[in-house]
């Protein structure tokens, strides 16, 4: 930097100040953020090696359930489509499943229950650091994938949601086929023996046993099978991923 | 033992009444140890600051598996007073203290008070930015883990751990005296300074094998993917939130170790200690049975670099004998 005064100010801030200011500049530079972000690939590969894709998340007992399951992010989607469904207690809700599938489908909650209906008590870990335990009832995502017939080219399952985080910026998320096929990956329609409450994602949300909360899309309107998520949103595979969070949410 | 301090200020420190004394440079820390030490300094510093950034996303700690509201054992919160000003409240168990300006509420980037656990001058990045804090943390977590594995492997292979750190029976017998010496800030300057004392040995072993391994395990125990195989460990410490609490506590235990470590470096001769960890050469007093060698500048580089750490075969330092002590 040629600006002498700002250099002197920097020097005056002391070692810690200089270190932190340097870190801020690295954080804001594209290269710095990319280099630091390289740990994501290492985390994903090493964790897949140490914790195989078939490994199951711990299931808890009724006594472990959180008294309040803290809802985070959107707690009341304000889009007209969602408001219309809510007005009729979600009776007209149909999950659309399309993309790289042989038999696109529209499935009501009752249709989903016929495909698969199971309950599990698992822990939800937020990227912010908190955890909550809930009893989830839902349909294995793999049963839905079998029902529609996934094409060979499909690599990711994308979840499109009713809630908008910003104007024309709907929430979305994606997982790979392996995670989608995990036995604990559910499309959940009930929490703690009640229909899924609106703050927790009614009428249908994703539940993953081994990923952070931001992956677990609420208010799902549509499931799309894709070979790449480059053309969706900003191309990083999810709303929070587009804000700089890692696509791999296992840690 | 010699109670004189600041060995490095005189090249020939002589105890009154003793025969001639001079000092010599000992090749104490090998290059790999020095490199790994400074990598560790960088990694730990950045992990602490980025860790506090991550903590700020939910500045409360719990025991068990769940984060039930009202069950926090530590909370850095914010409240509004009657005038509408933000007040930082730190709660530990049932006790609460006002910590406005530092914990709970501190100045944001525009200078106005904002609710945040730790202040911006203790976090990387300085603004609230969880996604970037995670990137820093995980990147340097890998640096810390790989560096730590190299250190343990190297130290075992070179018998650094076995010879220099594992306490001997004599070390254990001297523990009382070592404690007294430490509280009196007495540090040896002769050949004894080359040996880690019992408290040093215990401190280093504890930091490496309890803090180092513990903080990594507790970090990994917060990973939902790893918990699919590590749930026995997670449950053994009480749950994921317990793991988060222990991770936090060990981080501050590292800080406490570093504070003591830096204090000991300061009182035992900061320049000599720094030279030891930068160039490898550490100066000790040595009493010479014969008159000192003629003044001759012997460059440090003549010392064989392959010497094991702590070996006392050394070159003579360029020393001018002080005639007053003749």
Written account of the structure:
The complex is a heterodimer of chains A (251) and B (326). Helices cover 30% and strands 25% of the residues of chain A. Chain A has helices at residues 4-12, 14-28, 30-37, 39-50, 80-87, 109-115, 141-148, 177-180, 239-242; strands spanning 95-99, 105-107, 118-125, 131-140, 156-166, 169-176, 186-191, 194-195, 205-207, 220-226. In chain A, the strands form two sheets. In chain A, strands 2-1-10-5-6 form a five-stranded mixed beta sheet. Chain A is globular and about 70 Å long. Chain B is of the alpha+beta class and 326 residues long. Chain B is 45% helix and 13% strand. In chain B, strands 2-3-4-5 form a four-stranded antiparallel beta sheet. In chain B, a hairpin with a 5-residue loop joins strand 6 and strand 7. In chain B, helix 1 (31-56) packs antiparallel against helix 2 (130-157) and helix 6 runs antiparallel to helix 8. The chains are: A alpha+beta (251), B alpha+beta (326). The interface between A and B is large, with 52 and 47 residues.
């Amino acid at each position: 930097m040629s600006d002498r005064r700002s250099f002197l100010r920097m020097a005056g801030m002391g070692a810690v100040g200089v270190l932190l200011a340097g870190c801020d500049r690295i954080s804001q530079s594209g290269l710095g953020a990319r280099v630091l972000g390289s740990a994501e690939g290492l985390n994903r590969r090493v964790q897949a090696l140490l914790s195989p894709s078939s490994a199951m998340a711990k299931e808890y007992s009724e006594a472990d359930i959180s008294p309040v399951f803290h809802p985070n992010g959107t707690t009341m989607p304000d889009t007209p489509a969602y408001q219309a469904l809510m007005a009729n207690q979600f009776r007209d809700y149909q999950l659309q499943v399309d993309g790289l599938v042989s038999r696109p489908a529209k499935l009501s909650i009752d249709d989903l229950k016929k495909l698969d209906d199971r309950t599990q008590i698992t822990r939800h870990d937020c990227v912010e650091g908190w955890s909550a335990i809930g009893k989830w009832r839902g349909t294995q995502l793999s049963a839905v994938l079998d029902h529609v017939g996934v094409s060979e080219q499909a690599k990711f399952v994308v979840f499109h949601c009713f809630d908008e985080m910003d104007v024309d910026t709907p929430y979305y998320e994606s997982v790979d086929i392996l995670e989608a096929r995990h036995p604990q990956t559910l499309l959940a329609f009930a929490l703690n023996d009640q229909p899924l409450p609106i703050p927790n994602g009614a009428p249908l949300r994703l539940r993953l046993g081994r990923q952070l909360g931001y992956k677990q899309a609420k208010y799902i309107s549509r499931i799309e099978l894709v070979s790449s998520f480059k053309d969706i949103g900003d191309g990083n595979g999810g709303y929070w991923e587009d804000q700089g969070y890692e696509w791999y949410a296992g840690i | 033992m010699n109670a004189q301090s600041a060995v490095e200020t005189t090249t020939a420190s002589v105890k009154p009444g003793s025969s001639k004394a001079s000092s010599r440079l000992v090749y104490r820390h090998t290059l790999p140890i020095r490199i790994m030490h400074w990598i560790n300094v960088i990694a730990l510093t950045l992990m602490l600051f980025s860790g506090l950034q991550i903590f700020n996303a939910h500045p409360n700690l719990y025991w068990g598996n769940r984060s039930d509201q009202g069950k926090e054992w530590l909370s850095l919160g914010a409240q509004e007073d009657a005038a509408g000003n933000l007040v930082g409240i730190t709660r530990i168990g049932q006790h609460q203290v006002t910590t406005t300006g530092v914990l709970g509420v501190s100045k944001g980037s525009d200078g106005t008070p904002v609710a945040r656990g730790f202040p911006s001058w203790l976090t990387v990045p300085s603004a609230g930015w969880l996604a970037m804090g995670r990137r820093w943390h995980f990147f340097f977590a890998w640096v810390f883990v790989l560096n730590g594995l190299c250190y343990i492997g190297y130290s075992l292979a070179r018998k650094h751990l076995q010879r220099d750190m594992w306490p001997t029976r004599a070390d254990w017998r001297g523990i009382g005296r070592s404690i007294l010496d430490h509280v009196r800030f007495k540090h040896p300057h002769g050949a004894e300074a080359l040996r880690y004392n019992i408290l040093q040995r215990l401190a280093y072993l504890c930091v490496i094998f309890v803090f180092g391994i513990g903080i990594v395990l507790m970090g990994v125990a917060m990973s939902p993917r790893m918990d699919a195989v590590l749930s026995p460990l997670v449950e053994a410490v009480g749950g994921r939130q317990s793991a988060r609490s222990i991770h936090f506590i060990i981080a501050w235990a590292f800080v406490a170790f570093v504070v003591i470590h830096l204090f000991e470096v300061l009182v035992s001769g900061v320049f000599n200690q720094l030279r030891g960890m930068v160039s490898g050469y550490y100066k000790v007093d040595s009493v010479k049975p014969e008159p000192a060698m003629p003044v001759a500048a012997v460059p440090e580089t003549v010392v064989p670099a392959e010497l094991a750490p702590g070996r006392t075969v050394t070159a003579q330092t360029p020393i001018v004998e002080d005639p007053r002590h003749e």
